[in-house]
Amino acid sequence: MNFTWTIALIGLTFGQLPDAKLYEVNEGSVYFRSYAPLELIEASSTELKGLINTEERTFAFSVPMSSFEGFNSPLQRVHFNENYMESKQYPNATFSGKIIENIDFTKDGLYTVRAKGQLNVHGIKRERIIRSELQVGEGQIEVRADFTVLLAEHDISIPKIVHQKIAEEIAVEIRAVFLPKTP
């Protein structure tokens, strides 16, 4: 499911809640690191989109795979998009679901929560629980999450010729600032 459909479905749910509190990403980034024996590959994207419904504790995130930059070379970026992520066929990575803990978003503070949902990478959905920190205050919500993605779980193959240059487990960092969604 692409981001537009995910947001549309969540929007329908949110639309049924007259007092729902919607927050959307004002600025956000996704960073990944592949640390293999022979090579470190790092890239990031500032095109993270997302919504949080504080009443229902639901969320949806999406990042276009072709928006990642920073690779060791332009050719490495091409290989990432064409050979591994197949970005034309699977244009977005998404994560949507629900915050497990029942926190009061009206009270400022730092909260450690678990986000449970469907992580969709390379067209393969996996249920995940991702530990996250939420900083609530000054009319915004800051989200920080660090987790790993196993390439094999999302049917991303590493050819034997480059298996020493690409890690099987990718470290991912999400940083986002959410502001109240304006009508």
Describe the structure.
- The protein has helices at 3-15, 74-84; strands at residues 22-35, 40-45, 49-53, 58-64, 92-99, 109-121, 124-137, 140-150, 169-180.
- It has an 8-stranded antiparallel β-barrel.
- The chain has a single domain (3-180), classed as Lipid/polyisoprenoid-binding, YceI-like (Lipocalin, Beta Barrel).
- It has 183 residues and is mainly beta.
- The protein contains 2 helices and 9 strands; from the N terminus they run αββββαβββββ.
- The radius of gyration is 17 Å and the shape is elongated.
- A hairpin with a 2-residue loop joins β7 (124-137) and β8.
- Residues 1-19 have low confidence and may be disordered.
Can you give me a brief rundown of this structure?
This protein is 13% helix and 49% strand.
Secondary-structure map:
Blueprint: H1 3-15, E1 22-35, E2 40-45, E3 49-53, E4 58-64, H2 74-84, E5 92-99, E6 109-121, E7 124-137, E8 140-150, E9 169-180
In percent, how much strand structure appears in the residues?
A: over 45%
Could you list the spans in which at least 5 consecutive residues all have pLDDT below 50?
1-19
CATH topology: Lipocalin
The CATH superfamily title:
Lipid/polyisoprenoid-binding, YceI-like
- The appropriate CATH architecture is Beta Barrel
Count the strands?
Answer: 9
Question: Taking all residues together, what is the mean pLDDT?
Answer: 90
Shape: elongated
Q: Looking across the biggest beta sheet, what order are the strands in?
A: 1-3-4-5-6-7-8-9
The CATH class is identified as: Mainly Beta
Number of self-contained structural domains:
1
Q: What kind of sheet is the major sheet?
A: 8 strands, antiparallel, barrel
* Run of helices and strands: HEEEEHEEEEE
How many helices? 2
* Alpha-beta classification: mainly beta
User: What's the N-to-C terminus distance?
Assistant: 25 Å
Helix content: 10-25%
Radius of gyration (Å)? 17 Å
